[in-house]
Amino acid sequence: MMIPEQPKNSIRITLELNQRAPRLDSLLLEAIKTQVKNLELKHISRSKFKTLFDEKRIQIKGQPARPASSIAKGTTYIDILGFSEEE
């Protein structure tokens, strides 16, 4: 399987699913809250999270994702633009 290139100035969230998920938004928000690469993103508000979708800053395979996008079983790479790792 080919892993898509991660855009510059982005955080990548990798979702590993055992079954298809009906909506991206709730699953992604949970993954964001548990990641440790970026504290600003970790403590994001729901309204700011919604804005990321509205501004097309959440992408799957380089395409803007929708909150109601379903996610297939397996590995999905989601890039959130405008954030970088704070190591």
Short summary:
With 87 residues, the chain is an alpha+beta fold. The chain is built from 3 helices and 4 strands; from the N terminus they run βαααβββ.
What multimeric state do the chains show? Answer: single chain
Unreliable stretches covering 5 or more consecutive residues: none
Radius of gyration: 12 Å
Order of strands, main sheet, comes to: 1-4-2-3
Kindly, what is the distance between the CA atoms of the first and last residues, rounded to a whole number of angstroms? 28 Å
Q: What is the assigned CATH homologous superfamily?
A: RNA-binding S4 domain
According to DSSP, the number of beta strands is 4
The string of secondary-structure elements, in order, is EHHHEEE
CATH architecture annotation: Roll
Counted by DSSP, the helix tally is 3
How many strands, what sense, and barrel or not for the largest sheet? 4 strands, antiparallel
Number of domains: 1
CATH fold annotation: Structural Genomics Hypothetical 15.5 Kd Protein In mrcA-pckA Intergenic Region, Chain A
**Helical residues, percent:** 25-40%
Query: Which CATH top level class fits?
Result: Alpha Beta
Helix- and strand-based class? alpha+beta
Arithmetic mean pLDDT:
93
